[in-house]
User: Fold this.
Amino acid sequence: MAGNPMSIFDISGRAMSAQLVRLNATASNMANAGNVTGSEKQAYRAIRPVFTSVTEKPGVSTVKVENVVTTDAKPVKRYDPNHPLADKDGNVFEAAVDSSMELVDMLEAARMYQNNVQVLQTAKSLLLDTVRMGK
Assistant:
């Protein structure tokens, strides 16, 4: 693609890839929500993708995933001396994941993904209509 301008298909495809990373991160967070461990250091912390804008030429930009980072949220410390993973003080540490926030994030990412699918479908339809006009 060196030297070629980004097409609507490139732009939407990149945006869809970024939202897929976001959905996978959210799914990982949800899968680990509620997990407990015997130390704060070992407790799961939510992950988030970091997006950056990619501009090929003025007025034409899209997004890419720069990195996936671990949040600095603190695990929930809970006194549960009978838990098999409890530390010497009887505490367990629950994953630092806000399930409600993860669900909202998942819905938003899914909608953005679907919006880009619609953009691709519309662009394809317009392209096919243009080809038919030429016949």
Observations:
- The first strand starts at residue 36 and ends at 37.
- The chain is about 45% helix and 25% strand.
